[in-house]
Amino acid sequence: MQTVKMVISGAVNAGKTEFIKTISEIEVVSTERRATDDTRLIKKETTVAMDFGRIAISDDLVLHLFGTPGQKRFDFMWEILAEGMLGLVILVDSTRPETFRETNRIIDFFVSYRDTPYVIAANKQDRPNAWSPEELRLALRQPPHIKVLPCTATDRESVKNVLLELLYVIQERSED
Amino acid sequence: MALVGNIRDFSLSDFLSLVDRGYKTGALHLSYNDQTARLYFEKGKLLLAARRPEDEKPDLLVRLGVLNAEQVAQACQTLAARGNGTTLSQVIIDTGLASPDRLQQALLGHTEQSVYGLFAWPEGDFLFEHNQRPAPDAPLAPTPISIDHLIMEGVRRIDEWERIRDRIPSTDLVPRFLAPPGEKLKGMRLAPDEWKVFARINGRDTLAEIAQKTGLSDFDVCRAVYGFLTAGMLELVKRQRVLAAGMPPVEQPRLKKSLVNRIINRIRSM
Question: At residue B182, what are phi and psi to the nearest 5 degrees?
Fold first, then answer.
């Protein structure tokens, strides 16, 4: 059985857990705990280790989805999760510009030492005052070739679209 | 849809940079305690900065000593007669009440001072309304103002490492120009120390080495580089990446196209 891995990252409350829940075929293994620090101002529970979801591609191939913990003190987990990943989805809460700096830090962590294929998902596009994908591209200083995609993590079609767009990037780099 | 946030989290320099690179047209409304301000942009350039409502009225030109009250009234009358599509500044220039240079200089100075004052705000809500334009009788700079040097001015006022570390986490990073900086540089007025840093950026030296070679402190070098970054002139890369001539130090696993296609087909069918 071959397994391949994709990582879903982003700042606290960007929607990582929801994103994986929406597409995973198994009930997501989540290590959510009651938030004990500043995070509790944003959400009652937060992912302290990681989320894990799975999609069976065929009898001999499985796609694993890992959500990274958003809080800074769990940075050490990122390195572990990043090892051998196929690609990366960076989720951004499009309604909270206060998380853009943290998002840039996460992108920098994952991308600067690896030539990681990644896309940015501008989550919560269904909310009022959501920054558009193009505005997020400017705010996050992403070059034109990086895909910044509209996303609603609770909507299956939207999540599928983000994963497919990432897969197209991976496809371009894959061997015949 | 309006863009909303707080300049505590997304600084005014960052926002100006976004407007500049996105060629945005619209009005930026700012409020902090009992103070308010409004900045109008046209295709990424600044038309007007008003720290109070009177700054958007023709009488501003009297306060700035460009025209007297009678001339302003005359210009407003002509503007009303001409109808839509004309600006007060055009009327003033066309009727010879003031030269374009005189008008530009006065409004440029006023606008710059207005924006500089905003950089002192530690926080403040912002709201950017796309395509909101100033009233026809607003005293607009005849030539829209490039905001690159305003961004640099904002950065000069940063006196905390914390803010700079958000984007420059280490002095071991190497600044590298994204493109030949010629055109961008025209709109900027660099201070002598910034020139020193600028001249030392070669895509090989780290920030720490630039500090050593220029005799400037790490903070001063990083602040200047922060400004160049905010103006979209350069990027920071890790030395390892530079030495590897663009090749990634950690190879990603290469997959067979057929395997990727299988995953794509499966996701499509879900």
Answer: -50, -60
